[in-house]
Design goal:
This protein has one domain. It has 68 residues and is mainly alpha-helical. It starts with 6 loop residues before the first helix and ends in a 17-residue tail after the last helix. Strands 1-2 form a two-stranded antiparallel ribbon. It contains three helices and two strands, in the order H-H-E-E-H. The chain is 40% helix and 9% strand. A hairpin with a 2-residue loop joins strand 1 and strand 2. The mean pLDDT is 89.
Length: 68
């Protein structure tokens, strides 16, 4: 299994062929992804966690406001 979903898999997951609708659906579901040159990049691990009902937290680094 690949680290990322293939285009047909993204289409099956979202129910849409258009990348803008795929993007909107994934965002609505809270599944982290990127759009690169009209192609959706989504990790199979993120989809697996979403299916399991696990919350995914995006982070851009440490929260220094919580540091003592």
């Amino acid at each position: 299994m690949s680290e990322f979903l293939e285009t047909p898999d993204v289409r099956k997951l979202t129910g849409f062929a258009d990348h803008t609708k795929q993007d909107a659906w994934l965002t609505e579901q809270g599944i982290p992804h990127r759009v690169v040159r009209k192609k959706i990049i989504v990790s199979t691990e993120h989809v697996r966690r979403w299916l399991e009902g696990k919350r995914m937290v995006s982070s851009n680094g440490p929260n220094w406001s919580k540091a003592a």
